[in-house]
Amino acid sequence: MADQQPNFPAGYSVGITPEVRRLDTKLSPPPAGPRFAQPVIRPQQLLSPLSANDSRTGSPLPHLSTPPGPPMFSSPVQPAAVPLRTPPATPQPVAFSATPSATPPSNRSDGTNEFRHQVLGDAEDMVSLSDAPNVLFSARKVLKQKKLMNVPSLGFGALVSPGREVLHGPQIIQRVPHRCQNCGAYANLYCNILLGSGQWQCVICQNLNGSEGEYIAPTKEDLFNLPELAFPMVDFVQTGNRRPGFIPVSDSRMSAPIVLVVDDCLDEPHLQHLQSSLHAFVDSLPPTTRIGVVSYGKTVSVYDLSEGSIASADLLLGNVSPNQESLKQLVYGTGIYLAPIHASLPVVHSIFSSLRPYNLNLPEASRDRCMGVALEVVLAIIQGPSADMSQGVVKKLGGSSRIIVCAGGPNTYGPGSVPHSFSHPNYPHMEKTALKWMEHFGREAHKRNTLIDILCAGTCPVRVPILQPLVKASGGILILHDDFGEAFGVNLQRASTRAAGSHGLMEIRCSDDVSVSQVIGPGEEAHTDNHEEFKNDNSVSIQMLSVEETQCFAVSMETRGNIKSDFVYIQFGILFSNLYQDDIIRVITVRLPTVDSVSSYLESVHDEVAAVLIAKRSLLRAKNFSDAIDVRKTVDERIKDITSRFGSQMPK
User: Fold this and answer.
1) How many Cβ atoms sit within 10 Å of the Cβ of residue 204?
2) How many CB atoms lie within 10 A of CB 348?
3) What is the distance between the alpha carbons of residues 364 and 183, in angstroms, rounded to a whole number?
4) I want to staple 174 with a disulfide (CB 3.0 to 4.6 A). Which of 9, 12, 100, 377 is the partner?
5) 107-123: per-residue pLDDT in tens?
6) What predicted TM-score, i.e. pTM, was given to this entire model?
């Protein structure tokens, strides 16, 4: 509807400004379309199997909710043939109390007391308890011989989910953690402690450190009242706030607005599915959720949510970035573009019903879509008038805002766009310019605590390489769907409920001669000025643009020499800010025994984890179709190599 001049019936007025024109079109109430059904939780659904993207998805938490049931479609186009199998929705974070919980209650029946006593037990008994719930290793033992341990075909490593919620939650400590002054590792349950002086020995570098008297105790058992000395995973929480004017609130969805950015160039069958999913989506939102709706084609339509049941939009041109004057007319105007769903549900339904299919005779890939301008406008709306005021004057509700783009084709018009055809004489240059624009805008959104998720659907190529830098830089996700059917509807709701942390940093430290050789996951190498440095810190640091439950890193490791000690220690330190802007330091420490016996090592191999690590390393090499063919041969050779090194020759 953005690609043609609208025909207004008599009695309707249109006010036009140099770049912003307002149109009011009265619509009938939205039809009684399909809605998401209330979820039915079955006991067997509470735990989900291991997947490649989540080391252990799902947990039987009573406060978790599952995704809503898919909408029932009645349009001629059928939804995806295979229904999406989805783990439980990401839980919302729980606000931390002001009372430190350093001493767990002694009458707990979840196994923690038994765990503490077993720390003092035989080392072999600890094998079953050494894994933290957020980490899965490809083997539970480590071979001492370098030659055997570093067999590249099998490899050794771990799947790490830094932000994953666990069954009983981590032990929460509201103070600064004790760190090794030599290598930066954190004090943990495996440290040797001198009870008289409170000094503790680092398991990574063996350095002796002070504890300011905190670890002085008459017996070892008394030390188990300190969570970091009793549990493999703990969270150190600093409730201080580095954002002046930030107001934490109890309901995350009240503080973090969601803006839907809808492709305006869809054919009728796809549009019908999208409308059904959008109607059902807004019905599933909590009443306090603030929402906004923007559509884009050759122009950008910013919908006013203050018009009752009338779909009213302000239009901006899509060929160039809007100037400051145009944005001020929106931000300081009388329109309301973000409103709680309980107050704007009728008009939001009217907006979705008012969307019309593309009516020009152009192929999908050749239609003008100004996604870049739409995103610029949305970011300005989310920022609001306070962007022009000094920091701290206007109180801003906290949380990460979300922009969810529902796209059916590529960005081919305005900033960040590429030509319709690859044969365009200037295509390489324009592609390079588009990539730079997308990455720059994604970083700008990230600075303003806004995540951009792009959910694509349909058969039209969306030029994923152009959109990926935008999503990655902002900390969002990009998902491809066959159509706008049930899988799209479920992922739409998931995108709105993900509770993402920000400013994430993951540090990996290993003892003895174990080193990290490769990390695959949603992050990049951290700059040295982003984290504290120590004298002999050999950690691998990964910058994470967001910290979410469904993220997973594949960490490959190897040994630089033969191992002489009986155990190796691997520690993960995850630093991030949660939804309430609390600074979290999550420390996960794992101890693995070392063995000389190959058979003992093979018995400890976790075949599913090893398979995922092998698959991720293999896929990383498949850049194009010809590479994929070569990788298939490589996987075959890898299996043969594993059997020749660790197997025995069978008779014919």
Assistant:
1) 27
2) 25
3) 56
4) 100
5) 333 333 333 333 333 33
6) 0.64
